[in-house]
Amino acid sequence: MALDRLLNVARKEFSDHITSRRFVIILVLFLVISAIGMHTGIGYYNDMLESYNQQLQYMQELEVDSPYVNWMPEKPSIMLIFNSMMSYMTTLGGILAIAIGFDLVSKEKETRSLKTLLSHPLYRDEIINGKALGGVGALGFAMVLALAISLAMLLLFSIVPTLEEFAAILIFGAVSLGFLLAYFSIALMMSTVARESGNALIYTLVIFFAVSSLLPLLGTVAADVLVGDPPEPPEVGLIPTIVGRSVSATAGGGYFVSSASQSVVQVGSEDQVWREYEEELRNYIDKRMLISDLTTLISPQMNYYTIAMAVTNPQITATIDALYNSGMAPEETPGLAEALGRVWMNIAALIVFPSVFFAVTYVKFMRMDIR
Amino acid sequence: MIQAENLTKVYNGKAVVDGLDLEVDEGDIFGFLGPNGAGKSTTILMLTGMIEPTSGRCLVDGIEVAKDPLRVKEIIGYLPEDVGFYGNMTAEQNLDYFARFYGMDSRERKERIAELLELVHLDGVTQKAGEYSRGMKQRLGLAQALINDPKVLFLDEPTANLDPEGVREYRKLVEHLADEGKTIFVSSHILSEVREVCRTVGLLAKGKLVAQGTLEEVARALAPSDGDAVRIIVETPERLPAIEDPGILSIERNGSRAVILAMADIRDRLAESLYSQGVHIREMHLEEPDIEDVFMAAYRR
């Protein structure tokens, strides 16, 4: 494979994307809505900052022997502002990625330009890799624009990110790009498999809705079917003990909501029945969590939310993780690296997902009948 | 310049091209004839390195196509049937995109593109290729096939979308290119088109090469055989008298006209016999097979 030939294809594809009306319209819509989301996020951040300043002032007024004297309020991170971008990314961003990829190959089949192209000295893999590279470049361009506008808005509102926050913004951009690639790869594969662009779009949208809406629902149903109902508590004397924890995360309307809860039961200290119940309940929760985690790993949306949450709000991720493992909320907010370390499986899944679809696309394109 | 040895392509268990042996000399204008679905386009795709043969091999300028398709593509030009382009780009942009694959520098590309657009009368056209008529696309297709100044040119149904003026210009261009020493391989199902421009032809039917040579050679080879017998047409102003000759196999009479099937060319003896009987001869000739009919019959076989 010669780099110059691959880059020639990629250059043309990139140029086609960024000058296409379809791309420009969706991109502008995406940027405008992101900017509005950012504006809302900045308002929320400023409220949090004001609350923080009030708490600081309150702390300074506390007497030395007060029991709260050593407690320090936590300064809000500007990454909270980016929370609002997450849901726009999964809707408009996903649509942008699909719009770029769904007719990349099928249109060439329809207009018969693929045959013309293949008559010139280049290999098929150079064409498909060039197309993928051009698409990734266009999505990267969209992402850079979105982040640039976000940064500009931060500076406009006199919010200057620290070095770590700046790194987090870049990582957020990279993770968002990874999410867009997941849908781009599905669209590209469908474009290669389907004979017509219309069919490719329909197939892609079916998968889009399946993994974004159906899969989480199926996860819950699968958990109900496979794990069954929770064990019934015995009807005897009780002592309160924490035995299980459950976590959940949902997103919608520009906000990501996480919750962590502990299952508290009353156990009779002398009664063995309660210990057995405790064990059964723990197993029940563990199984549900396992099924939930597996479902999450297949869904690019859920992986994206999980990773983006770790970047924009590491405290929540750490709390969920700690509650699940130790039952105790962490005292300190983890660093960016630590937060990302906690979601490594989701990061791996977000990389593997598009890789699988790209691989299928590659094989299919190499074997395509061009008569 | 072009060779195919036992070239075979099988799709879904069916041989679309079946053991094709073919040879085209350098500088020839070769017409590849055959009805739709005979396997012409599949053969061209194999010769141009776009699909691999199931078995057999083909060579262009001594290079085995399946082993080194890129080297072959560098020396050939190909005009596909119903050629397609990038509709969002102008003719110049389309050609520039293709020209980059040949490592041509910017100045070289610009000069070559201007030259080709003038050649196919698309210079000064600012429309995007998506707005082109089929004829314009066909002319642009010819330009893209010539972008690398190829040694060998493959043209698949080249006049399919051209108007009469376009066809006339295409014929002139093909002659001109052949005079430059290029080998031209024209695939078509239109005999009249091939007859106009091609020096030699090959007839493909059901994936097999039925005959190859000059048009006359092929027609003769394909004509229905009467052994060594010949058909002589005789027409006189008067009613034909009885004709006796040991060489005559049969006579079909129709007033003053007769079709005589003879063991050999006995026209001299027939003329003498009729003259001796006082009959004037208006016309007497050997019946040559009609090329159109011969090819049509071969298509149907």
From TrEMBL, chain A:
Entry GO MF terms: ABC-type transporter activity
A Pfam family of the record is ABC2_membrane_2
Entry's transmembrane regions: 21-45, 78-105, 132-160, 166-188, 200-223, 343-363
A single Gene Ontology CC annotation of this entry is: plasma membrane
Tell me the keywords, alphabetical order.
Membrane, Transmembrane, Transmembrane helix
Superkingdom to which the source organism belongs = Archaea
User: What is this protein's name?
Assistant: ABC-2 type transport system permease protein
